[in-house]
Amino acid sequence: MHKFDEMYAQLPFIDSAVRPHYRNYLDWLKRQDPQTMRDRREEAEMIFRRVGITFAVYGDKDEDGAGTERLIPFDLIPRIIPAHEWTSMQQGLVQRVNALNMFIHDVYHEQNILKAGLIPSEQILNNAQYRPEMHGVDVPNQVYSQISGIDIVRAPDAQGKGEYYVLEDNLRVPSGVSYMLEDRKMMMRLFPELFSQHRVAPVAHYPDLLLETLRASSPSTTDNPTVVVLTPGMYNSAYFEHAFLAQQMGVELVEGQDLFVKDNFVYMRTTRGPKRVDVIYRRVDDDFLDPNVFRSTSTLGCAGLMEVYKAGHVNICNAVGTGIADDKSIYPYVPQMIEFYLGEKPILNNVPTFQCRKKDDLAYTLANLDKLVVKEVHGAGGYGMLVGPAATKAEIEEFRQVLLAKPDGYISQPTLSLSSCPTYVESGIAPRHIDLRPFVLSGKTVQMVPGGLTRVALKEGSLVVNSSQGGGTKDTWILEV
């Protein structure tokens, strides 16, 4: 299998084969004393722990049976992308997110893509993420996913060159942007000299762009919209991010109990009395948003919220029902969506995908389980999946039975050799597999900060980069020309 490393054109690491955009960085790295770098790593860990940049891991339990808080490991070696590669990737991301927003609007309105037969109707209408309550509901700017986290991987082609692919679309409540911002802050604190030697595009203005996007998504009932961040509470795995973004935007962080509905408007309780809310940046899943409409036992949302939403007196970002477009059974159709809605060829390719609901695709998957990655269509966080080449025979046989029992719940993909990037590990510097999650903001226009969150699989040979599975993060540098 071909391999592609971001820093070196040849593996194992050969300095003469370093890629041009990494040359200055490598010259600097070779001048660093190993003990100094170890000290910097410890300093970063101490600061992250002090600030509380942790991630709750539900699989791990402490003595009381509660989920444990884990520090997300931070790697000191940045992932560097040259300007021309970013420009092309950015164009592909804008194209993709525009098509996805048009698709969501279509399935809740005219359903032209279903009438054209491009996607089987039952795959939409019987999907657990499809919300019939949203049919015919108009949302500001016809934008459903204001914040999209698109996972990009690079894998070698037949010539060994690296090609970017979209691995999945996260359109419900994508997380991780706070780590992108904190990683950059940490690199600038530890190595200020690097930023005077490299023209690294800034990312610190992301909270400003996010607030601008949310305010632009307000209903037309006000000129000066009030934005809030709705969190499930401090026990949620991404609570640090909810609090961080609210603080960075200068808006209130609220829980469901802080909101109430009166006269078809939403209000938050404040020490000065009720204040009307126009835009809710929700970090709560659809099922918990309104106990009158979805899960009746939910205490995380606000009773009556959907009525106000449908009346156009509040906007929920991302929109209710957006999950229909980030379901892994819908992902294979995104290239057709781009052609159908935009009349363009996709700039970024999908990873080849087999839909186990299809008889031939299921047969192929069952015959090649040891070579494929099999994912649950509603899965997230690296759970509910099989990485064939890394699985035991017993695990493969167990998964075979799961697949046979519910084939329409799974897709499979070839095991991509994700690109690697030099990373600090216990034994020194070694290649580890990475991906990239850029964050695309859609308001009246589509914009993003250059780069995104680079996640790294810290176990040797592992392809699973998710924080919940022990992955770490790196700063992502887009070099300006």
From TrEMBL:
Q: Which Pfam families match?
A: CP_ATPgrasp_2 (PF14403)
Q: Which domain of life is it from?
A: Bacteria
Which segments constitute the Circularly permuted ATP-grasp type domain? 78-457
In Swiss-Prot or TrEMBL terms, this protein is called: Circularly permuted ATP-grasp type 2 domain-containing protein
Origin organism of this chain? Answer: Limnohabitans curvus
Q: What is the lineage of its organism?
A: Bacteria, Pseudomonadati, Pseudomonadota, Betaproteobacteria, Burkholderiales
